[in-house]
């Protein structure tokens, strides 16, 4: 069992090869901010009747889609590829100037050390550190019953930090900045994908316009029709367009999943002192997390029923903050007085072979004093694509899987997808393979699916165990049962949870 888990863990957290960023030039934008680029594109389409040909078309310019482009730009074998990014978000075509005095955005991500390493190697993390962000070195998890708590400290695993919380706009801007500072040939199309045809002969429909085209881009292409009436061709289409992926729908890829009948309220709050710990308390209706954002700000992620979330969103600021402080302090039950199960608390099953800070005393989270952003409500669900790859097409990020925000793993799984795919594309180019060939893309699917399913099963098991069993002593038993029930219908992995020997690091 340990061998299975360690192999899976290596796929999620240990995908790393030495590389350096290649940064010199800005991203080319087609159809909006660059008049010259638009005129050139219009000239090609009107007079030469030639649609642009790319090696890769990334549909979706969010954090995961842009991360893929960033990783491709940083690898010697892929930095000469021509990449199109299709997304109607105007933020992609303009520079984002983030001022320190700007109010924090409630949409944040908690980035794990593994993801930070990917972004550092790609040259993007230095841009994150220029803006507001917060490393945290401590974590405390406890139950509303008061029966126990678990505390973690980065020093226990010989690390400087357990993770970093940053606004999504900061992460997105950092990835874009890294690409703009490179000589990577990227064209942004501020349009929507309307239709897609895979396996179209490029020889009969597309005229190549450059002699620098790599061998991997010859042969057949996919045709993508855009909302502005134009068409482009690509050797590989990457669906990075989120949980409601249009690429996935057009490709006819089905999903397995369910809704949780829960919503998450997210917002930014302020307290009197700076917060350096990630806090999470399990309540009867779902967990509430308080995540540090720096500058005395923290982010709230509070899971509850749809009815309760709508009610709390409409409360006055004073009433809402009173509820937050109650949920993080004495509400629903007393403070724990000892760590769970002595020296082997319930969360130790999900640690690696390190010791845990069981001798540290329970701490009360800082009191929230002000609401610093609007309150946003999102429905929660689990979705998993039955297939990640077919010829000329591959899915990454939320287009392939969406998970419960319980442990903040969503964007990290997406970054893992993006890095894995970029590495496998590089390997294919090195071997002279067609980057859209299904056998190559299935290597990515095999590598990422096992890792993603494992994490999804664990998180879904935790969520269902808590919502059904309502007790810290039953949570792992329930997690094991429901996690196994999730994996079985997918018919992809058979993992025994009975032994209790599997250990996964779960960071917020």
From TrEMBL:
<keyword id="KW-0496">Mitochondrion</keyword>
<dbReference type="GO" id="GO:0071949">
    <property type="term" value="F:FAD binding"/>
</dbReference>
<keyword id="KW-0472">Membrane</keyword>
<keyword id="KW-0812">Transmembrane</keyword>
<dbReference type="InterPro" id="IPR018168">
    <property type="entry name" value="Ubi_Hdrlase_CS"/>
</dbReference>
<feature type="transmembrane region" description="Helical">
    <location>
        <begin position="56"/>
        <end position="75"/>
    </location>
</feature>
<dbReference type="GO" id="GO:0016712">
    <property type="term" value="F:oxidoreductase activity, acting on paired donors, with incorporation or reduction of molecular oxygen, reduced flavin or flavoprotein as one donor, and incorporation of one atom of oxygen"/>
</dbReference>
<dbReference type="GO" id="GO:0016123">
    <property type="term" value="P:xanthophyll biosynthetic process"/>
</dbReference>
<comment type="function">
    <text>FAD-dependent monooxygenase required for two non-consecutive steps during ubiquinone biosynthesis. Required for the C5-ring hydroxylation during ubiquinone biosynthesis by catalyzing the hydroxylation of 4-hydroxy-3-(all-trans-polyprenyl)benzoic acid to 3,4-dihydroxy-5-(all-trans-polyprenyl)benzoic acid. Also acts downstream of coq4, for the C1-hydroxylation during ubiquinone biosynthesis by catalyzing the hydroxylation of 2-methoxy-6-(all-trans-polyprenyl)phenol to 2-methoxy-6-(all-trans-polyprenyl)benzene-1,4-diol.</text>
</comment>
<dbReference type="GO" id="GO:0106364">
    <property type="term" value="F:4-hydroxy-3-all-trans-polyprenylbenzoate oxygenase activity"/>
</dbReference>
<dbReference type="InterPro" id="IPR051205">
    <property type="entry name" value="UbiH/COQ6_monooxygenase"/>
</dbReference>
<dbReference type="GO" id="GO:0016120">
    <property type="term" value="P:carotene biosynthetic process"/>
</dbReference>
<dbReference type="GO" id="GO:0120538">
    <property type="term" value="F:2-methoxy-6-polyprenolphenol 4-hydroxylase activity"/>
</dbReference>
<keyword id="KW-0831">Ubiquinone biosynthesis</keyword>
<feature type="domain" description="FAD-binding">
    <location>
        <begin position="54"/>
        <end position="328"/>
    </location>
</feature>
<dbReference type="InterPro" id="IPR010971">
    <property type="entry name" value="UbiH/COQ6"/>
</dbReference>
<keyword id="KW-0999">Mitochondrion inner membrane</keyword>
<comment type="pathway">
    <text>Cofactor biosynthesis; ubiquinone biosynthesis.</text>
</comment>
<comment type="subunit">
    <text>Component of a multi-subunit COQ enzyme complex.</text>
</comment>
<dbReference type="InterPro" id="IPR036188">
    <property type="entry name" value="FAD/NAD-bd_sf"/>
</dbReference>
<comment type="similarity">
    <text>Belongs to the UbiH/COQ6 family.</text>
</comment>
<keyword id="KW-1133">Transmembrane helix</keyword>
<keyword id="KW-0274">FAD</keyword>
<keyword id="KW-0503">Monooxygenase</keyword>
<dbReference type="InterPro" id="IPR000689">
    <property type="entry name" value="UbQ_mOase_COQ6"/>
</dbReference>
<keyword id="KW-0285">Flavoprotein</keyword>
<dbReference type="GO" id="GO:0031314">
    <property type="term" value="C:extrinsic component of mitochondrial inner membrane"/>
</dbReference>
<keyword id="KW-0560">Oxidoreductase</keyword>
<dbReference type="InterPro" id="IPR002938">
    <property type="entry name" value="FAD-bd"/>
</dbReference>
<feature type="domain" description="FAD-binding">
    <location>
        <begin position="374"/>
        <end position="450"/>
    </location>
</feature>
<dbReference type="Pfam" id="PF01494">
    <property type="entry name" value="FAD_binding_3"/>
</dbReference>
<protein>
    <recommendedName>
        <fullName>Ubiquinone biosynthesis monooxygenase COQ6, mitochondrial</fullName>
        <ecNumber>1.14.15.45</ecNumber>
        <ecNumber>1.14.15.46</ecNumber>
    </recommendedName>
</protein>
């Amino acid at each position: 069992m340990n061998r299975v888990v360690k192999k899976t863990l290596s796929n999620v957290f240990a995908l790393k090869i030495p590389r350096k960023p290649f940064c010199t030039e800005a991203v080319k934008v087609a159809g909006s901010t660059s008049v010259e680029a638009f005129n050139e594109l219009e000239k090609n389409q009107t007079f030469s009747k030639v649609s642009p040909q790319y090696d890769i078309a990334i549909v979706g310019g969010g954090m995961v889609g842009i991360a893929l482009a960033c990783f491709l730009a940083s690898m010697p074998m892929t930095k000469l590829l021509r990449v199109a990014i299709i997304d109607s978000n105007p933020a992609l075509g303009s520079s984002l100037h983030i001022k320190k005095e700007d109010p924090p955005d409630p949409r944040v991500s908690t980035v794990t050390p593994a993801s930070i390493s990917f972004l550092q190697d790609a040259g993007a993390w230095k841009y994150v550190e220029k803006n507001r962000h917060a490393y945290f070195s401590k974590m405390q998890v406890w139950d509303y019953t008061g029966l126990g708590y678990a505390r973690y400290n980065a020093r226990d695993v010989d690390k400087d930090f357990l993770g970093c919380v940053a606004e999504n706009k900061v992460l997105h801007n950092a990835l874009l900045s890294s690409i703009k500072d490179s000589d990577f040939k990227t064209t942004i199309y501020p349009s929507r994908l309307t239709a897609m045809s895979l396996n179209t002969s490029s020889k009969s429909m597309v005229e190549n316009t450059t002699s620098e085209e790599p061998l991997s881009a010859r042969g057949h292409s996919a045709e993508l029709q855009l909302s502005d009436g134009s068409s482009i061709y690509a050797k590989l289409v990457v669906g990075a367009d989120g949980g409601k992926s249009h690429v996935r729908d057009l490709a006819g890829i089905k999903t397995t999943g369910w809704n949780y009948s829960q919503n998450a309220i997210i917002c930014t709050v302020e307290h009197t002192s700076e917060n350096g710990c990630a806090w999470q308390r399990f309540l009867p209706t779902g967990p509430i997390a308080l995540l540090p954002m720096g500058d005395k700000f923290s982010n709230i992620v509070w899971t509850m029923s749809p009815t309760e979330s709508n009610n709390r969103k409409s409360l006055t600021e004073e009433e809402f903050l009173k509820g937050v402080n109650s949920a993080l302090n004495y509400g629903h039950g007393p403070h724990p007085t000892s760590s769970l199960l002595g020296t082997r608390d319930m969360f130790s099953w999900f640690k690696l072979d390190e010791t845990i800070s069981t001798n540290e005393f329970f701490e009360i989270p800082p009191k929230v004093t002000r609401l610093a952003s609007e309150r946003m409500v999102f429905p929660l669900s689990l979705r998993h694509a039955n297939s990640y790859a077919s010829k000329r097409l591959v899915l990454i990020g939320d287009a392939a899987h969406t998970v419960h925000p319980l442990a903040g793993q969503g964007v990290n799984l997406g970054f893992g997808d993006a890095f894995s795919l970029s590495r496998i594309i590089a390997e294919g180019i090195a071997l002279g393979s067609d980057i859209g060939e299904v056998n190559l893309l299935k290597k990515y699917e095999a590598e990422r699916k096992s890792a993603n399913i494992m994490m999804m099963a664990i998180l879904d098991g935790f969520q269902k165990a808590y919502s059904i069993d309502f007790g810290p002593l039953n949570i792992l038993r329930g997690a094991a049962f429901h996690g196994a029930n999730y994996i079985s219908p997918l018919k992809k992995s058979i993992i025994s949870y009975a032994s209790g020997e599997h250990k996964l690091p779960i960071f917020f």
